[in-house]
Every structure is written in C-alpha cells, then in structure tokens.
Amino acid sequence: MHALLVYAHPEPTSFTAALKDTASETIRGAGHSVEISDLYAEGFNPVAGRHDFLTTHDPQRFHYQNEQGHAHKEGGFAPDLAREQARFAKADLVIWLYPIWWGGVPAILKGWFDRVMAYGFAYSDGRRYDSGFFRDKLGMLCLTTGGTEQRFSATGVYGTIDQVLWPTQRLMVEYMGLKALEPFVAYGAPRVDQAGREAYLAAWRARLLDVLAESASSDAPKTVPVP
C-alpha cells in the first residue's frame, strides 16, 4: 500500500505534526510506503486563478471549472497542481491531517481541494460518490480540535463531530468516490497533558494498523476450495 499524507499545519512542533510523524512511522514500519504533502513547508498557494493553467479554454471569460476540464484534457495544469495530482493518483490511502479552524479545514487545505481536486481529474458529470473516480482509494480525516469532546456532542455548543465534519467528510472526501473511513479526532489537543497526548498517539497508531490490516485482508486473493 502507498499512502499520501496531506498535512496542513504551520508549526512543526504542533500536535498535528506529531500525528503526521506517527502516521508516517507506523505505515512505513508496517512495510508500506508514504509520501507527504507538507502544504505550509512547500509554500502551497491556496488561491485559485488563471495561474493554475498552462492552457486557456476561454480568453474572454474566466470560468474556473471549464478551465479545469480543459486543462485535464490537454495536460495543462500548472506544475504545483500536476505534482499534487500525481501524488494523489499514486496513493491507495490518503490521510488529511489538520487542526479544525472555524468549524472547517484551514484555508490552505481548502485551497488544496479547490485547486488540486479539479473537474475532470477528481470528478465530472455523473462521476461522483458511488460512481466517483476514486472508489479504489481509502480516505481518512485526522484532525485536532481546541474544544473538548463534550463540546462536540449532541448536548454540546458545537453539535456532534459528524455534523461539524459533514462538509468535509461527505461533500469533499466521499464526493470523489473514496471509501471514507471514520475520522480520527484528537479533542482538546492544546488542553491535554503529556500522558493524554501519548494516549492519543497510541490510539492513532493502533487505528492505522487496523486500517492497514483490514486493507491487506480485503486485497488478499480469495482461495477456491478444491472439490
């Protein structure tokens, strides 16, 4: 299995970074390969525009989706987008790691979805959800929150984590046809002590090993009993 970690945090000593490092070490330790898109460190530009394309579909009126579809057909994406699309296409498992900010993903990660997951490449008419392009890929969100688990509950002020993550889980990951795994959430990351952080990392490591084991089992050739 080959995994892509799309990591969106500006601070290398953050707990999100620790989750990223743990994922990389765990997956590699299990005999698989890993590539990391470190969006901040690589200076990824989240702002969409004509600079996304080496080709032009309509010089008179800029329609972003039309330009994406044309670039996909003509091989006309800018180098940074072509690089990220190649990384994504190569992966069997994609993990997005980020802190939840204002109820969603950081702007740099939203821009990654806007620019990289382009029309023609990631979806098209009639190719979404169960008919999406990437039904052979696994996708998982791994995020940290500032709020406690109680705040992300049915009685909490933010509502359940499923409600909060719906735009990302359902309308982004599942939209592209990936098999979306249950998100891993480290609640109240700035508030927990070292023991609590170590417990989160241990749980994250165990979760990843389960995912890898389940994937290996599902990919194993089925034996046919000899009569």
Features:
single chain; alpha/beta; six-stranded parallel beta sheet; 227 residues; globular; 6 strands
Number of helices, where a helix is a run of at least 4 consecutive DSSP H or I residues? 6
Classified in CATH, the superfamily is Flavodoxin domain
Q: Which term fits the overall shape?
A: globular
- Overall structural class, as computed from helix and strand content, comes to alpha/beta
* CATH class identity: Alpha Beta
Q: Report the portion of residues in β strands.
A: 5-15%
Q: How many discrete structural domains? A: 1
Which architecture does the CATH hierarchy give at level 2? 3-Layer(aba) Sandwich
SSE run:
EHEHHEHEHEEH
Overall strand count = 6
Family: Belongs to the NAD(P)H dehydrogenase (quinone) family.
GO molecular function: NAD(P)H dehydrogenase (quinone) activity
Domain Flavodoxin-like fold: 1-208
Protein name: Flavodoxin family protein
Structure in a nutshell:
The chain has 227 residues and is an alpha/beta fold. It is 38% helix and 14% strand.
What does this protein look like?
Helix content is 38%, strand content 14%. It has helices at 15-29, 64-74, 79-90, 107-116, 161-173, 194-219; strands at 2-7, 33-38, 93-99, 138-144, 179-180, 184-186. It is α/β, with parallel strands linked by helices and 227 residues long. It has one domain (2-218): 3-Layer(aba) Sandwich (Rossmann fold), CATH 3.40.50.360. The chain contains 6 helices and 6 strands, in the order βαβααβαβαββα. Strands 1, 2, 3, 4, 5 and 6 form a 6-stranded parallel sheet that branches. InterPro entries: Flavodoxin_fold, Flavoprotein-like_sf, NAD(P)H_dehydrogenase_qn. Residues 1-208 form the Flavodoxin-like fold domain. One of its GO terms (cellular component) is cytosol. Pfam families: Flavodoxin_2 (PF02525).
